[in-house]
Amino acid sequence: DHRLSAAIGRIEPSPTLAITARAAAMKADGIDVISLSAGEPDFDTPDFVKQAAIAAIEAGQTKYTAVGGTPALKAAVVAKFARENRIDYSPPEVIVGVGGKQVLFNAILATVGPGDEVIVPAPYWVSYPDIVRFAGGSVVAVPAGREQGYKVTPEQIAAAITPATRWVIFNSPSNPTGAAYSGEELAALGAVLRDHPHVMAITDDMYEHIWYADTPFATLAEVCPDLKDRILTVNGCSKAYAMTGWRIGFAGGPRWLIAAMTKLQSQSTSNACSIAQAAALAALDGPKDFLAERNAAFRARRDLVVERLDAIDGLACPSPEGAFYVYPDASGLIGRATPEGVMLSNDADLAEYLLAEARVAVVPGAAFGLSPAFRVSYATSREILETACERIARACAKLG
Ligand code: PLP
């Protein structure tokens, strides 16, 4: 379409939309569909956070703020990185945006153009490749399958780096697999960057607080402080504080990059919502005890889902260390036939079959760049998860 820009032609609508829309349409037709495709906690925003927003409205904090965030919230972000991640940023090294998504968009648009490459380990969060392509850059996907715990190795990253590489994007714990890198694994990945001074790294730590491992969460700038000036540490309130609708994300990074991202934001959204910023301030500075309770619930659901799905003939479901997703490998189901005699030739076919036969909506691995697999979000009640797993098991048992 000649009315559209070249840039918009390079991206696709979120590939999860098709299946989510079909599930919604089936529900509207009165069919009892269980959707395991949500990317958000089912818990509510903590009450003290809501109260801070109400107080901000009543105090008249309803005007524009500084583009990169209120001084108070930037100070809280600086304190968060120091307290939780042992990274020493100053206020000019942090930015607050409209969700982690805008922060990532700012960073890529400010640094990537035609001829530039961005290394993205697969499976990846669906938006990374599209943001890179929108900027005009090329995506270099590096596959990390179940046999390697859905984690890339330093050797793979080293082999993918070229003179055109601008960024490597790490996401731990991962959407869609839940896999998380240990401090030692991150240090080994950082060592590769040390050999290639032109390469920078984004670490997307959005799921930091949805964490089950015995070892503490680690992030790249923490374990490789000498590389801090080449790392953008992205985080936000959406997942940790069940604040997806408030749209607050933030990042710490080198001053020149934060300044460029702030300049771009000044010409797009200006500041994040003033009221949401007040709520985020309360969340970052406030009590953290509810996180342990929620993690205990998430962890029990993970155990349930992993046990049920891994027991299904044809599926292999690793048990992840964080986030609220599992990513069963479905190699054993591809090539098999439905009761109607239709062959499942890929994971999109499998997701279609599960929707039609089990009435459970999952997202096919193709959306995340690593097949055959599918993503299950377990951010829903135990009862629903039990029913969904039972239905998936029954549908899989019917395959020839
Ligand atoms: N990064 C990852 C890995 C995500 O899964 C998400 C949300 O789904 C985001 C970033 C963006 O989060 P938000 O824009 O809600 O802060």
Automatic annotation (TrEMBL):
Q: Does the keyword Magnesium apply?
A: no
Give the Gene3D superfamilies listed for this entry. Answer: Aspartate Aminotransferase, domain 1, Type I PLP-dependent aspartate aminotransferase-like (Major domain)
Keywords for this protein = Aminotransferase, Pyridoxal phosphate, Transferase
Q: What class of enzyme is it?
A: transferase
- Catalytic reaction annotation: L-aspartate + 2-oxoglutarate = oxaloacetate + L-glutamate
Q: Which cofactor does it need?
A: pyridoxal 5'-phosphate
What's the EC number here? 2.6.1.-
Which PROSITE patterns does the protein's record reference?
AA_TRANSFER_CLASS_1 (PS00105)
Q: Supply one GO BP term.
A: amino acid metabolic process
Residue intervals of the Aminotransferase class I/classII large domain: 32-392
Q: Does the keyword Transferase apply?
A: yes
| GO molecular function per UniProt | L-aspartate:2-oxoglutarate aminotransferase activity; pyridoxal phosphate binding
Q: One Pfam family name from the record?
A: Aminotran_1_2
Q: Which CDD domains match?
A: AAT_like (cd00609)
UniProt subunit comment: Homodimer.
Family under the similarity heading:
Belongs to the class-I pyridoxal-phosphate-dependent aminotransferase family.
UniProt xrefs under PANTHER family: ASPARTATE AMINOTRANSFERASE (PTHR46383)
Protein name, entry field: Aminotransferase
